[in-house]
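Trying the structure run again after the queue cleared.
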Amino acid sequence: MAKILAITNQKGGVGKTTTTINLAASLAAAKQRVLLVDLDPQGNATMGSGIDKRDLPSTVYHLLLGSKNLSEVRYRSGVGKYDVLPANRELAGAEIELIDLPRRESQLKEALQTVENEYDYVLIDCPPALNLLTLNGLCAARSVMIPMQCEYYALEGLSDLVNTIQKVRANLNPGLEIEGLLRTMFDPRNTLAQQVSDQLQQHFGEKVYRTVIPRNVRLAEAPSYGLPALYHDKLSKGAKAYLALAGELLNNAAKAVKA
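Done. Tokens:
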């Protein structure tokens, strides 16, 4: 059974999509069967996986509205060696169209149930907002990964996000847990970043991943080539960091099984 992980933060620009793409590629490189779900109408995770969002006959939009089944909207990222449920601007219209559907917040969950035995990991790239798309991601997931920058405003946003997760758990998905907090775009020379990082570790303890994602030019460049960083420059600090994160996830999963 797949581990379904929503990668989310209501604050934009914190590295959600970068994390989703590069973690998917790193897990696939570790021989894991991976499905990436792009729930952001910007379609950046789709493009960053080497799939042109402009020429797609069917996307996750059609899946959520029930006009296509999952096998009809699933594509292969040849560069990343994982499967993708892609998105483009059409998905923005799903917000309005989903409102009239019964169990509108569970459309993705029900679709994924048909294939979850085919994968080891399902990574859901959520949009930077609390809307019906994000709710679909949180209802489908078993746990949440929260990428965040170590800056002052990030702590305020984190408090709001934790409250949101608690409400979803109380009303829609009782099994939802916080998998972990991922420090992204980290600059060790920045005193404030160090202070915020320390505060996170004090408050959340083992929920903070040991792996830290640095600021890295190669991570920023890779999407323009339609590549995960691992296949743009495998020796870059960014690529190595996401490989380490994948290793940490796999080790944690192995420990959980033994426990």
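The radius of gyration is 17 Å. Worth checking whether this holds up in the mutant runs.
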